[in-house]
Amino acid sequence: MLDGCVNFRDLGGYHTVDGHQTRWRRLFRADGLNRLSPDDRAQLRDMGLATVIDLRTVDEGEQRGSFPVDEVPVQYHSLPLSDVLPSPEELAAWDEASYVASHYFDLVVGRGAVLAQAIKVLADGGALPAVVHCSAGKDRTGVLSALILAFLGVPDETIVEDYALSAPAMVLLFERLKGEYPDSVEIVTKMAPAIIQVAPETMANLLEALRSEYGSYDGLAEHLGVSEAVARLRPTLLEAV
After folding, report:
1. What total of structural domains would you count in the chain?
2. CA-to-CA distance for 81 and 140, rounded, in angstroms?
3. pLDDT, tens digit, 9 for 90 and up, residues 132-176
4. Which of 15, 62, 117, 165 suits 83 as a labelling partner, its CA being 20 to 30 A distant?
5. Residue 231 domain-assigned?
6. CB 56 within 8 A of CB 80
């Protein structure tokens, strides 16, 4: 959809267990938004984009640039879901679905306040349309997107399918990174497992772990303190079918 992104997509059209579906053109997920072309920026203005939630670390934003709020006026929220990126040694283990799922679970447990803040931002009046993003649009964005869909009543299998949609984009991202850092191809190649790995069982394992730990998604929402925010989100993100 956007020239400057490889993993920008709409979270609309997903059916829920209670006979609704997520609205189109309300909430988007994406990789980095620092390479947007003039046409991309025009598209975002035309769609009336109101909010950007950036889950990247502070260093990522400083090194790679941030969303062009001067050309596309939005409410921009920097909400780092981690302080630092995983080390190369940690990234080498990201070809194991169980390892990645445990990392995702740790984000929910350890950075629940940040995830809650993002959900509350989206629930504010006038916050939509919105886009949530990180650098790849797969891991941190994948966790937040999964929580939102789960809280709205989207079935686990659909959430897993949405997560898996990032797979082709990660191949494109890997090639882009090799082109952007020609002097560091060896380092980028060592990061390949973390970049390319999009195993459906990773998200399935995360959702199972969350249900086991909190009893239900309603229980998780209550734990995070977002039950009221989710209630406000429902009429803006869901429609009857």
Report:
1. 1
2. 7
3. 999 999 999 999 999 999 999 999 999 999 999 999 998 888 777
4. 165
5. no
6. yes
